[in-house]
Design a protein that fits this description.
Layout: H1 5-49, H2 56-79, H3 83-110, H4 116-121, H5 126-136, H6 140-162, H7 167-186, H8 198-201, H9 204-209, H10 219-227, E1 234-237, E2 245-250, H11 269-274, E3 279-280, E4 284-285, H12 291-300, H13 327-332, E5 337-342, H14 351-357, E6 362-364, H15 384-397, E7 405-410, H16 428-448, E8 456-461, H17 471-477, E9 487-490, E10 498-499, E11 504-505, H18 509-517, E12 520-523, E13 541-544, E14 551-555, E15 560-564, E16 571-574, H19 580-593, H20 601-609
Parallel strand pairs: 2-7, 2-8, 3-10, 4-11, 5-6, 5-7
Antiparallel strand pairs: 1-12, 3-9, 8-9, 13-14, 14-15, 15-16
Helix pairs in contact: 1-2, 1-3, 1-6, 2-3, 2-7, 3-6, 15-16
């Protein structure tokens, strides 16, 4: 009876050694991922404070919790006897590895974090999102990513095969997980006291659990907000003009890219030179951190303060599809036609649905025959220079010359990682200089046609680029550096050229157009009027922060505060202007008055499974 047992006792140590080797490889892979993320976070934030390495160890300490979780899941697989039950911890382990890799790639590409709400939002755009991530990797980074991805797959498949019921090894793995968790907990004192990096050095689970954005308001809280003094409205005579208006929204155009705006890059030399004959606004702010946020602010006059459920929705424009508050609807009352041009896919985040909802008469994107046969780049878009050629063609030959028009143009190529279409490599300055030259060409074309005798050309960024702030940028502007974008203006001769001081923002466009075209215009203290001979600045600008998502920056000429959105626990932080309570109340009441976001991934899957009527 002893003879049959000998082969098993010989095989058991070998199998255990295989399992132990897989555990060690898993631990090494998790450590490498944590080390790489710590390096990226430190490289992004250490220059702000001149402290190399100050963010490396805190980031690593926070990610030790994920290492502990990975080892605990592996230990759980070793303790479970049922093959089917063992699939649960193994599936969770695989999900953890994929999430850590995706989080690392998102931070490398956009200096951002992987949020579950973003996964739901962009679930239908996986090809475009993966294209951005792939293009951000080149050279040694691409090789390293391929190596780590291959290693992760092999380790997980090996673990699936060899991590079977081995109680002693399972307890050893759980013990190691406990030791790592204790080390992570005891290292939390390393966290630097630096507000902007907190959601970067925290681990993936902490970042997602920290989002308080959808905490609900109680009726008592809303009543308390209503009881506070409302922000006053002021009505003034309008200009009753009918100029053609062209708005160019340049993807990721940022103040740091312009020497005229005090930036570290000299990527916009032609626009900066042309600004001497027009206007430029040195204290101009984007209201959002994404393209859809910029479009909402510019085209509806509302800061994209997130409605409930917006970040968990696949509807990027949730709560802002109200035709009663849009530039096209406003201008239609005065006989305007509104058109929209881009080289990108209009189906991306449902622009093709939202644009007609807010009143655009015509819109075209990548499907236009004008781009047929042209090389495509990021998001499947033709290069930006072709966008301005296409618009010039429409302006010269296709527009209805009997009606004034409003035209919105959206570029694509200048999206990070700033891939140069000529070389296929990341080159921020070269990509921006191409669009700089193209817009200067459009300016010259319009000038030759006499457009500026009555017409207006505006050029701004849709949001600040999702790239690390430069040290000088943060030292110069503080928290408001996250929202600063250029705004260039050229128009009729009675709009005297030069620097226009004061706080202005994207959402000022609608009240400014109302003032420009109407006989009377009403606006509040948070709205500037920039399209008049003597511009009037706003008393504050709002900026919906990308990280953390629950922060709404409130920026004045002499203060920087913020509202933290957390349901009834919402509160103001930072500098407090005299009317701060009214500003905060207006933010909460706007959120409460808008429809909630809908159309998340689960709902879309249910729709797909539903039988056709």
């Amino acid at each position: 009876m002893t003879a049959p047992l000998r082969p098993d006792t010989k095989k058991l140590p070998t199998a255990s050694r295989y399992a132990l080797a897989v555990l060690v490889l898993l631990l090494c892979w998790l450590l490498v991922m944590a080390g790489l993320r710590a390096h990226l976070v430190d490289a992004a934030f250490a220059p702000y404070v001149g402290c190399q390495g100050c963010f490396y160890w805190p980031t690593l300490a926070h990610d030790l919790s994920l290492l502990a979780l990975g080892m605990a899941l592996a230990g759980g697989a070793l303790l479970v006897r049922s093959p089917w039950l063992r699939l649960l911890p193994m599936a969770l382990l695989g999900l953890l590895m994929v999430a850590m890799a995706a989080d690392l790639l998102v931070f490398h590409s956009l200096t951002h974090r992987l949020l579950w709400s973003d996964v739901l939002k962009f679930a239908r755009e996986l090809s475009a999102v993966s294209d951005v991530g792939a293009r951000s990797l080149h050279g040694s980074a691409r090789l390293l990513a391929a190596t780590l991805a291959t290693a992760a797959l092999l380790i997980w498949l090996s673990a699936l095969r060899v991590l079977k019921a081995r109680p002693r090894l399972g307890l050893l793995s759980l013990g190691a997980a406990l030791a790592v968790a204790l080390a992570a907990w005891s290292s939390r004192g390393l966290d630097p006291d630096y507000v902007n990096a907190n959601l970067s050095f925290q681990n993936l689970l902490e970042v997602n659990l920290a989002q308080s954005i959808d905490a609900p308001y109680s009726e008592a809280f809303i009543e308390r907000m209503r009881s506070l003094p409302a922000l006053p409205q002021r009505c003034t005579p309008g200009q009753a003009r009918r100029p053609n208006v062209i708005l160019v929204m340049v993807e990721s155009l940022s103040a740091y890219q312009s020497r005229r705006y005090g930036g570290e890059l000299d990527a916009l030399p032609q626009l900066d030179a042309l600004a001497a004959g027009g206007r430029w606004f040195p204290d101009f702010h984007a209201n959002g951190f994404t393209t859809d946020g910029g479009m909402i602010a510019l085209l509806t006059g509302q800061a994209p303060i997130p409605v409930f459920g917006r970040y968990a929705s696949m509807d990027a424009f949730a709560g802002y599809a109200d035709r009663a508050h849009s530039v096209p609807a406003l201008l239609a009352e005065h006989g305007y036609a509104s058109v929209f041009f881009t080289t990108g896919d209009l189906g991306f985040v449902d622009k093709n649905r939202w644009l007609p909802e807010i009143g655009f008469d015509r819109f075209e994107g990548a499907e236009s025959g004008y781009y047929e046969g042209k090389a495509r780049g990021i998001f499947g878009a033709a290069r930006d220079s072709l966008l301005f050629d296409r618009f010039a063609q429409w302006y010269d030959h296709e527009r209805d010359t009997g009606r004034p028009f409003f035209a919105a143009l959206l570029t694509v190529t200048t999206h990070p990682p700033f891939i140069n279409p000529e070389t296929g490599t990341a080159d921020e300055t070269a990509v921006l200089r191409e669009v700089d030259s193209a817009i200067a060409g459009l300016h010259g074309h319009l000038q030759a046609s006499g457009f500026f005798e009555h017409g207006i050309l505006l050029v701004t960024g849709d949001h600040r680029a999702m790239t690390p702030l430069h040290r000088a940028e943060y030292q110069r502007h503080g928290e408001s550096a996250y929202s600063r974008v250029p705004m260039y203006f050229w128009g009729p001769s009675d709009f005297s050229p030069g620097r226009i001081d004061g706080v202005f923002q994207h959402s000022d466009l609608l009240p400014s157009l109302a003032d420009l075209t109407g006989s009377e215009a009403c606006h509040g203290p948070g709205q500037g009027l920039m399209l008049r001979p003597a511009p009037q600045a706003a008393s504050f600008a709002l900026h919906a922060r990308g990280m953390p998502r629950d922060r709404i920056d409130v920026i004045g000429s002499d203060f920087q505060g913020a509202v933290i959105l957390a349901g009834d626990r919402s509160h103001w932080t930072g500098d407090q202007p005299g009317n701060w309570q009214s500003i905060e109340a207006a933010i909460h009441l706007q959120r409460a008055s808008r429809a909630s976001g809908s159309g998340n991934l689960l709902e879309r899957l249910i729709e797909l499974r539903a039988p056709a009527p």
